[in-house]
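Tip: read the tokens left to right.
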């Protein structure tokens, strides 16, 4: 009887451990799912960002012409809320509104570097069309270190 218990233990315990490792390792975390979903939905999110940014009317006196998206993305988590955020590199091109105060400003024709902001909440990525001007994604996470903590994407 003792011999059977030892044999069963040698088979059952390693099998149970192996199954636990397989199923545990197969499960992805919410953050991993969010990062994958961002990659899949990025193009649609960029279009949504542009549409909402145009409606915001910032900066005043300028019209958004287009966004040239860069490949660099930095992910961070809001320290207070835990909300996952993506900062995406973008070059934003503007035109002055005809008859407006910016019409004669030469610099209007120059593109602006910025980080577009996206948030992941309740299983969905979204944006409010907010841009952090003069900041790369990595700079945005660094400058907002009191509000965000970096998320590794490896």
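Filled-in amino acids:
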């Amino acid at each position: 009887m003792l011999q059977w218990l030892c044999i069963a233990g040698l088979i059952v315990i390693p099998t149970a451990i192996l199954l636990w490792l397989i199923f545990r390792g197969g499960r992805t975390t919410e953050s991993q799912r969010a990062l994958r979903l961002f990659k899949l939905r990025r193009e649609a999110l960029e279009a949504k960002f542009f549409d909402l940014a145009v409606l915001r009317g910032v900066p005043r006196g300028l019209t958004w012409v287009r966004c040239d998206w860069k490949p660099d993305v930095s992910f961070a988590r809001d320290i207070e809320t835990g909300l996952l955020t993506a900062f995406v590199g973008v070059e934003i091109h503007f035109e002055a509104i005809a008859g407006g105060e910016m019409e004669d400003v030469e610099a209007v024709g120059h593109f602006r570097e910025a980080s577009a902001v996206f948030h992941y909440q309740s299983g969905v990525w979204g944006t409010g069309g907010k841009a952090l001007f003069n900041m790369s994604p990595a700079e945005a996470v660094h400058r907002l270190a009191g509000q965000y903590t970096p998320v590794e994407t490896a």
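The two ends are 50 Å apart (CA to CA). The helical segments are 2-26, 30-56, 137-143.
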